[in-house]
Amino acid sequence: MSNYSKPTIDWDSLGFNVTETKSMFRATCDLGGKWSGGELIPYGDIQLSPFAGVLNYGQGVFEGVKAFRSSKGNVVLFRPEMNGKRMAFSTKRICMPEMNPAFFVDAVTKTVKDNIDYVPPFGKGSLYIRPVVWGTAPILGVSPTSEYTFMVMVSPVGPYFKNGIKPLNLKVNTDYHRAAPKGIGNAKAIGNYSASLFPLMEAKKEGFDENIYLDAKEEKFVEELGSANMFIYKDGCLKTPALNGSILGGITRQSVCQVASDLLGITVEKTELTVDDLLSADEVFCTGTAVVITPVGKISYQGKMTEINQNKMGPIAQKIRETLVGIQREELDDPFGWVVSVE
């Protein structure tokens, strides 16, 4: 790393793509051991056995975190301990050494600090952080592998919406399921995302932005998108599908619930949502690390298109988004202690 020189980046042309950075974090742990140590290494390719557990049996989990420059000039993270807790759950569920949330946050912080020059200026985007754990020891039989590698990689990305927020055009998909009851839908496992790729490509060919998936048991309750949680607003109440074992517990989802109830005085219910609830709602929006809060403008179900709130972002989604983003950017007071400075 002695040959390092500050990057020259055209911040205005950043998309959501991989940009090579200075360094990445790496630590290893044996099955049954505890995560400790680790080091920053130069960013670059890695070597894996062709028999690595992650390559053959999909033993891998990941997280998505963002660091960005706030209105005060600080480089901040948003609720990284929540990502750490979810990583702890995911690793345990996939039979890996359980990640200690404090170890997770420390590794993320070290990686961001070492790559601070890649954090875009305020309003120009963010540093996307990808913590991941893979089963890296070679294995032939179907069982947990003997060694695991934890890595944290980063890449600067531009604003998700460069030309203003465009309401999503979604399809309620009745041909595929995202996850099964009692499966791994509530863990951030790599297999969940590979399962959603084919339905996503089909939906995009038909002109949709994403799929809305129904529960796999009764096929009548809304669960989530391929990579975002769902909310509806109707008759003064904000509702989101309750975590039932196959829905990923999003950090933005939880934050939206808390902002709405504690700061804006909106009644929040975590409950079952039917397709009829969705189609008759005053507002529908989805939440996630990348999109924060994005309105849904159109929903297609069984060949019939329904327009939501005249294909515009509704006032409730707008107010929650402004409040949440204001807290993230240190433009508004942070009464919850969610924003963590890394400098």
Give a nutshell description of this structure:
This protein has seven helices and 17 strands. With 343 residues, the protein is α+β, with helices and mostly antiparallel strands.
Question: Would you give an account of this structure?
Answer:
It is a single chain. This protein has two domains: 11-157, D-amino Acid Aminotransferase, Chain A, domain 1 (2-Layer Sandwich); 168-328, D-amino Acid Aminotransferase, Chain A, domain 2 (Alpha-Beta Barrel), CATH 3.20.10.10. It is built from seven helices and 17 strands. It has helices at residues 53-57, 80-93, 101-114, 190-205, 251-263, 275-279, 315-328, and strands spanning 23-30, 39-42, 60-62, 65-69, 75-78, 126-135, 147-157, 168-173, 210-214, 222-225, 229-234, 237-241, 267-271, 283-288, 292-301, 304-307, 339-341. α5 packs across α7.
Q: Compute the gyration radius: what is it? A: 20 Å
Mean pLDDT: 95
Number of helices: 7
Number of strands: 17
Distance between the termini: 20 Å
Identify the overall geometry: globular
Specify the biggest β-sheet: 9 strands, mixed
Oligomer: single chain
Helix percent reads: 10-25%
Q: Can you write the helix and strand succession as a string?
A: EEHEEEHHEEEHEEEEHEHEEEHE
Report the uncertain regions. Answer: none
Structure keywords:
343 residues, D-amino Acid Aminotransferase, Chain A, domain 2, single chain, D-amino Acid Aminotransferase, Chain A, domain 1
Architecture blueprint of SSEs:
Blueprint: E1 23-30, E2 39-42, H1 53-57, E3 60-62, E4 65-69, E5 75-78, H2 80-93, H3 101-114, E6 126-135, E7 147-157, E8 168-173, H4 190-205, E9 210-214, E10 222-225, E11 229-234, E12 237-241, H5 251-263, E13 267-271, H6 275-279, E14 283-288, E15 292-301, E16 304-307, H7 315-328, E17 339-341
Parallel strand pairs: 8-9, 8-15, 12-13
Antiparallel strand pairs: 1-2, 1-7, 3-6, 4-5, 4-6, 5-17, 6-7, 9-10, 11-12, 11-14, 14-15, 15-16
